[in-house]
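Dear colleague,

Thank you for sharing your sequence with our group. We've completed the structure prediction you requested, and as agreed, I am returning the results in plain text so they can be pasted directly into your records. Please verify that the sequence below matches your submission; if there's any discrepancy, let me know and we will rerun it promptly.
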Amino acid sequence: MRGDSERSPGERLERVRQQYPREIEIFRAHFSRGLTELCDPRFLQRRYDEFKLKHDPIYPELLKAMDDEALAKTFISYWTIAHTLATRSRFWIEDAIADYLIQWAQHEGRNTTRIYSQAMLGHGWMDRGLTVADFGEDYREHLSERRAWRVRVQRSSLRAIDLLVGEQERERVREASQSVQQSLWPRRAWDRWQDPELVKKDEGHLVRIANSLKGPPESEVTLQCNLVVIEPNRLDGRPHAWAIRFVNPKTMGSHPVRKQERVNLLRLYAWLMQEKVLRDPDQIEVCVAELLPRYSDFDELDRYPDYFSSLTYWSSDYLWKSLGIPFEVVTLALRDVAGQFREELIRGLRDLLPKSG
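Please find the predicted structure tokens below.
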């Protein structure tokens, strides 16, 4: 039998299709619902009306002066679909991941498992301690009803986080390599997989935050977290909890984004420790994870710290491996929904297209 590395791309995709038909269908369904809404003529008309009301000094004047309403609507509709698709497609994948994990837990009889998407967190599902056994048939409707997730975190911990991240920001990094071995290291700290020095340092930061919890008073903060999984009955006999924030590897190339994501991650960890979601804090894992396998350029002039090690930063490959499915399920779901997208585009734009003649 040939391994995956010896198969052609087409053969590998066909193998994935045969092995993961149910998972592909879950992702396809989420893409299908999203694309139907995106191409709905009523949605496009609302977006066009909103666009005309914006105080942009360029586009509205240019389109108005063309004196061709149909052409203007078509232009804005195409732009709206492309722009919104780039943003919402990530949300559809996030919702599908949560849906897949919920269905898996229900199928396996792991009824005490708790799984929450960003929307569920914002609507208080975790506060109420809902498990997959409590989810009704309409839980999918709540996967994408996004609302800010506001929690109360002890001020002593918030101050400790600000101090720690400030210390990291002042670190000198990316000096010239001192040895041949150093020159061969991956340029991002989190790509140096399980580097003991970096991991130990990261673990020390988490311990500092855990020790900073001194009790009230508290302050309300907004947390960004796309997936929480709490499993009290893992196969190893120990409880586990994961809190994952999905990130774009390209935006992580920006120092302000990295710094803010670090602050958010440490606040998330502090809240989980504060609320004692598990009795054993060693089983609580927090991380940022690359949702999509995108290539990210490295800026040689970036002298700011990376803030993360492989302990708290997951590559896209590691994320999908941890989920138990290959990213190719997304690829195949997109291919399966492409025909529908074509028809939705035609139907949504037909009445907007300018008449020829």
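Summary note from our side: The mean pLDDT is 86.

Kind regards,
the structure core
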